Amino acid sequence: MKKQRNIPKKNNKQSNRPAQKQSGRGTRTDARSAKPPVKKAAPKPKKPKNVTRADTPHTQTIQWFPGHMTKTKRQIEKDLRLVDAVAEILDARIPNSSRNPDIATLTAGKPRVILLNKSDMADKRITRDWISALSSETVRVIPVDCKSGRGVEKFVPALTDLLSDKIESYRKKGMLNPTMRVMIVGIPNVGKSTFINRISKKNKAQSADRPGVTRGNQWFTVARGFEMLDTPGVLWPKFDDQTVGERLAFTGAIKDNIMDIELLAIRLLDLLKELKTPEFIERYSLTDDDLTLPSYELLAVIAKHRGMLISGGEADTERAAAAVLDEFRAAKLGRITLEFP
Ligand SMILES: Nc1nc2c(ncn2[C@@H]2O[C@H](COP(=O)(O)OP(=O)(O)OP(=O)(O)O)[C@@H](O)[C@H]2O)c(=O)[nH]1
Ligand SMILES: [Mg+2]
């Protein structure tokens, strides 16, 4: 019978407990000097008044590595000894940027299945190229669409094949039906919990369309002989290449409210203008001339075409920015892959 259960209580408790303060109680001599300085949350970047987007650079530094991600990394490291394999979920639209280098290193010794998720929103041909590029003797690559379930059925056979030697050695030791444990890892919002729900045909793992939903490691029995560990999405402390941060932001792996959404949409429009997908052109009723405009002007055109205006009839570019991002994330502007192998 399929059921949900928690891992050895000790681990689970640790993963849900708020991080303990290293206050050094007993050794502290001066309470004031020992107190860490109160950190104010960084204010959301705002467009300065009387300065137009034409005058300002259109890039922003994107970084999102809250404390719970450090905690998750530690927990992943701890739980690795309990698992036989790792399923790394990548976003098929950005297979390179959605690969967390820290987690890849951390889990390097384990047999691995890579799931190229959200393949329903990616370019089919480029996904095929990625499958060839990422596959190897010890790594199986499967394109999946966890929203509809397409491709998910290939996971258990691929894993069984990958772990055949291990399963055989368990059987030789007298374990006729050994349980294989798999850790699911990936960046925030990539579809880890949705995958678990799909494969178990139950809706026990909490999922939603925003990054940072899962907050602790949790075990699920998903199929005969398989248990899976859902983990919270993890990023890394610094993106050396800011295009990586941007692509993660475009696809919804980074919390929107820490970014300037208008700047982000302008950068996305830089790409969409080049790609010129029919869906993009038709959806915003764009002319050839519109496509030659600087992206901050194009955003205003889109706002006007959509009737998004503020008092005085000016374009509401902030609303338009949110719409462009939402619609890109829902593949309403076409099946777009941003990275090639
Ligand atoms: N179109 C599409 N949407 C998907 C797919 N897989 C997941 N989603 C959606 O992506 C969103 C995020 O899914 P989750 O399963 O919560 O993602 P997660 O990786 O568990 O996220 P965190 O727990 O925040 O790290 C949800 O709205 C899902 O419906 C897919 O293959 N295609
Ligand atoms: Mg989740």
Question: Can you give a write-up of this model?
Answer:
- There is one protein chain.
- The chain is built from 13 helices and eight strands.
- The chain has helices at 9-16, 31-34, 67-79, 101-106, 124-134, 155-162, 164-172, 192-200, 242-251, 261-275, 278-283, 295-305, 317-329; strands at residues 85-91, 112-117, 139-143, 180-186, 218-223, 226-230, 309-310, 314-315.
- Among the domains are: 64-230, P-loop containing nucleotide triphosphate hydrolases (Rossmann fold), CATH 3.40.50.300; 260-329, no CATH class.
- The longest helix has 15 residues, at 261-275.
- The protein is elongated.
- Strands 3-2-1-4-6-5 form a six-stranded mixed sheet, with helices on both faces. The protein has a two-stranded antiparallel sheet with strand order 7-8.
- Strand 5 (218-223) and strand 6 form a beta hairpin.
- By secondary structure, the protein is α/β, with parallel strands linked by helices.
- 36% of the residues lie in helices and 12% in strands.
- It binds guanosine-5'-triphosphate and magnesium ion.
- Magnesium ion is lined by residues 192-193, 207, 213-214.
Secondary structure tally, helices: 13
Helix/strand order, N-terminal first: HHHEHEHEHHEHEEHHHHEEH
Strand order of the largest sheet: 3-2-1-4-6-5
What is the CATH topology of the domain at 64-230?
A: Rossmann fold
Low-confidence stretches: 1-35
CATH superfamily of the domain at 64-230: P-loop containing nucleotide triphosphate hydrolases
Averaged pLDDT: 87
The percentage of residues in β strands lies in: 5-15%
Instruction: Specify the CATH class of the domain at 64-230.
Output: Alpha Beta
Shape: elongated
